Amino acid sequence: MSRLPIQPGELLDRDTVVRFSFQGRSIEAFAGDTFGSALYASGRTLLSRSFKYHRPRGILCCRGHCANCMMTVDGTPNVRVCETPVRDGAVVEGQNVIGSLDRDLFSVVDKVGGPFTPVGFYYRTMIRPRRLWPLYERFLRNAAGLGKVPERDPHNRYDVEHREARVLVVGGGRAGREAAAEHAVAGPGVVLVDELPELGGLELPGVEVLAPARAIGVWEGGLVPVEHGNLLLRYRAQHLVVATGTIDQPLVFPGNDLVGVMLPGAVERLVERYAVKPGERAVVIAADDAADRARAALDQAGIEIVSTVRLTDGRTPAVAANGRKGQVRSVTVDGRTVDCDLVVMSGGRQPAYSLLAMAGAKVEYDAARGVLVPAAIPDGISATGSVTGAVGEQAVPAASYTAARSGKCFVCVCEDVTTKDVKRAVAEGFDSIELAKRYTTVTMGPCQGRYCHVQSIRLYAQETGADEAAVGATTARPPWTPVSMGLLAGRHLEPMKRSSLHHRHEESGASLIWAGAWKRPYAYGDVEQEVRAVHEDLGVIDVSTLGKLLVQGPDAAEFLERLYPNRFGDMKPGRIRYGVLTTDAGRIMDDGTVARLAEDSYYVTTTSTGADAVNGWFEWWNAIWGYDVEIANVTGALAAVNVAGPRAREALSALTDAPVSNDAISYLDAKELAVAGVTCLVLRIGFVGELGYELHCPSPAAEHLWDAIVSQGAVPFGLEPQRVLRLEKAHVIVGQDTDSESNLISAGMPWIAKLDKDDWVGKRATQLVQAAGVRECLVGFEMENGKLPAEGGQVVENGRPAGRVTSARRSAVLGKNIGLAWVRSEAAEEGTRIQIRVDGRPEPATVRHGAFYDPEGTRLRS
Amino acid sequence: MISPAFLSPDRCEPSVRLVSPLERALTGIDPGRVRDRSHVGKLEVRGDVASLEPAPGDRFHRIGPRHGLYVHEGPTAELRDSLTARGYAVIDQTGAYAAFEVHGADVLRRLTDLDLEALPAAGLVARVRGIVTRADGGAFVVYVAQEHGHYACEAVLDALEGLGR
Amino acid sequence: MSFLLSCPHCGPRPVDEFGYRGEVLTRPADDATLRELCDYVYFRDNVAGVQREWWSHRSGCELWFVAERDTRTNEVLRTEVPDTQRGSRQ
Q: Looking at the predicted structure, is the pLDDT value of residue A398 above 60?
């Protein structure tokens, strides 16, 4: 291997020297080189070890398609070095080896593993004895996959860019360039992408040229994501032109994977683009004229062609390549051996139709040419050039599958699938090419079938006795080209909802947890202390996450009456009722409070997680019903805090001039009030069981209001204390204590359902449920000993599951462990003794109805 | 009877400091990169908005067939009254939206696939619902739910960094 | 899924901006039998072909509309905001 003198079409800038390191050695390259071409020029041809057998591999395609040149560059695994431009100071390492590329301990698999690792071995070996599985697993995890994901922080920045194109042309060959130029005449918006770097500087009037850039697939809606460096360009194209040309096909013969066995295009690119001499003595095995192009390149490089084997004369000679230390050393044709260090194999050219197939085109086998061609191309897409299959000469079904005895014949180099594997799959009864594909993994490697699809179909046809057209092609699916996970992920975008008080919580040192899409305080410090503050003094919690809807208009009352089981039409303005939403299946969907602001205006709160769904639910029903109401989602416009505790009135009174006595603002009253100068809608409700006021204020004023309340001595409390407090009141959390099966009857809320009202959503189902009776009920329970069941724990009867715990907490104020659970309706009576499994043992508990704490509700009404 | 005027921050006493949802996210950030526009009055206007002409200095961004966002600098009380008198349903959403101004279509393209030639438009911006509008001088003003404001600003700043700005 | 859906107000937008509420159904009367109710609540025609279904442009203009979509190809043939009678009993 050596560098040739300056070649006419070379991409090298010989004045700029770039150095990188490979296995501790410094490699000198020119700007314009790829890591692969520079390594070849330096004499390094063994670039990787194969996936399964760890066989030495070198450049096969030299256009970034196959796995043969995958190396780890600066910590990034699976870089196809044959098309990755050199970078100064880069560190290039081999991968998938124990030891080094040259002395890979894993290569023992190739020598002795063959008989023990046949196709699908992982489905049937290493299964017994079961106790050895941990050992097997460790071995398999080590052996599986290619490359190692760097464990340190991602060092590559990936991003996604949304783009539109009138015409997107994929493939910058002659046909692609012509199509682009033609479309450019009609106006702007033409983009041409090509996978090879050469087109990078191409000037095409009116055309945006991107190279190297790879279309990774075609999705619905004309979506074509294009990999362009570390940028994923999400193109939506009105018209897609596929000009992806053809793909050189390898031949299948023993030793066809040796280092030095190449496709014609690889020889051409090494010689003409990178001025690398890939060998001294070449054998050309050709089924078509692609080899003639390669011959020109060989001549140009001064490489001696010691033998040419033509497969075009109807005869299939027995060909085998022989090697030493993984390098090709000679080729034997019909028993005659010639020495060589380079083999150019050309098995014809297959149209690169995958993008067309992904876009919905059909794929047919052209028996005359021996290739698969696209047909019935859908609207909005066109194909041009050789990808259509209309150009090129007759390809001869080639290769000497039968001579496979003397060594491994690879059908698929990426996945190390041999002819023997495919034959075995057929023998084992995989009677469809799609199934055989999944079993052998042929076409499932990095090249995505470019170099194995046609070969595998031909072999499969031969083995099954069917013709290729009947065998059919496997489905083409994105991605068409290997693409890094980072590129698909793009930037780290994880939407997080922050309440208007988020920063106050952070400043107070609250521990924040995800609650749906929100980050909310779990607690600010000690949970029990926060609970005690609410019971004995004064607490404040941020409940801005509650969904908030304004329903206004002449039909507001009738609209809500039809949506809810509850009755809202008879409410006086300024009053609040608890409301539960059901679906037409009678299932509990959400709950919250409904305050009547005026005759034609209601203020509805929903659960924090249900806000968007309930808003959508309201809007949807009214799209059907057409009531004269305006539904406005004011969730974000308002912040809300719940000020609760025996001292709540005192604190409120200190912050407002308005009267706040029990008569002025009674339990379940709604009022507008200026609190600390902030306009608030005050809702007097009692989720946490003590005297409390929910203050809803404009979001921008939330911090001011919060600070004022805290200055009155209110202790901020988080979600966890709130969960304890509400459980003491046996208040249900929809979605935690109820699930998609729960209805008003079974959840113990039959009083919600006004069955004498006109039709409402869920009415009929609730009637039917009530008539039929329910099998389980949601009840409260208290443990009879000091045990605390886990949420999700089992209620058991005679050792069998008979229900489940949905909430359970220690209540310090009650001195008991309490909870909510679903039990069989026979066991739902107050006082029934049930058993709940705690740490594997059934422990006694008693069913309780109503609130555990302040069951008469005197505290929150006081 | 309670009127929904309690939604309006400008009803609060002058001593109340109103805090932008972007205040922390944009602390120390050059306003030339991202400028906080959250303080402006934003009214959700519903009804026959096709013919709604904003007053001089105001902007009206039509978002749906019968609603849009009316943007007005300063207190909105009078405006609310006049729009209501003209038969529109008006909801003060000033506190509901965070708004920021950013320059360059390239930044927007890394955040949204909305057609920047056909603004205003509502759609996904950095994976959350946003309204993208044009401001004077070629800038874009993006509105997102206030609870997403901090996150959206981080996403924009990160996109700018990716573009070297 | 990346197909485009044409919002009656915003025009073609990627499907992930939309919420889906399934086939357009006729809600039974409030004296429906258990079978009629179950039909409405649980059973869907699930056609391989053109189907009328509810969508909302959730992340955009928030409009609810009806689309006619070919479930085999995801081609959306038509979208419309249905006319409703006030208090309609659908």
A: no
When pLDDT is cut at 50, 70 and 90, the band that residue A153 belongs to is low
Predicted confidence band of residue A455 (pLDDT cuts 50, 70, 90): confident
Show the CA angle centred on residue B30, arms to residues B27 and B33, nearest 5°: 115
User: pLDDT tens digits, residue range B92-122?
Assistant: 999 999 999 999 999 999 999 999 999 999 9
**pLDDT-derived band of residue A112, with 50, 70 and 90 as boundaries?**
low
C-alpha A805: how far from chain center: 33
Cα A521 from Cα A571, distance rounded (Å): 35
Residue C50, min C-alpha distance to chain B (Å): 26
Integer Cα distance of A774 and A823 in angstroms? 11
C10 contact residues in B (CB cutoff 8 A): 121-123
User: Chain C: nearest CA to B134, how far in angstroms?
Assistant: 17
Q: Give the chains touching C; criterion: ≥3 Cβ pairs < 8 Å.
A: A, B
- Token pair belonging to A389: 């299959």
> Which of C2, C4, C88 has its CB closest to that of A624?
C88
**Helical H segments across A468-537, by residue range:** 468-471, 485-489, 502-507, 527-536
Instruction: Judge whether residue A542 has pLDDT over 70.
Output: yes
CB burial string A451-468: b at 16+ within 10 A, e below: bbbbbbbbbbbbbbeeeb
Mapping DSSP onto H, E and C, the string for A673-704 reads: EEECCEEEEEECCCCCCCCEEEEEEEHHHHHH
Tokens for B115?
């057609």
Chain C residues in contact with A623 by the CB 8 A cut-off are 54, 64-65, 81-82, 84
DSSP sequence for B14-35: TTSPP--TTTTTTTT--TTTEE
Q: Which of A159, B148, A220 is nearest to C15 (CA)?
A: A220
Residue B124: which of C9, C17, C63 has the nearest Cβ? C17
Residues 6 or more apart whose CB falls under 8 angstroms from that of A315 comprise: none
Query: Which residues fall within 8 angstroms of residue A665, CB to CB, at 6 or more apart?
Result: A659, A671, A682, A684, A693
Q: Which of A728, A734, A750, A743 is nearest to A852 (CA)?
A: A728
Residue A458: the pLDDT is: 87
Mean pLDDT of A388-412: 64
Distance from CA of B23 to the nearest CA of A (A): 10
Distance from the B60 Cα atom to the nearest Cα atom in chain C, whole angstroms: 15
CA torsion A235-A241-A245-A249 (nearest 10°) is: 60
In this structure, the number of other CB atoms found within 10 A of the CB of residue A653 comes to: 15
Among partner residues A163, A498, A700, which is closest to B18 by beta-carbon distance? A700
Which of B63, B123, B128 minimises the CB distance to C13? Answer: B123
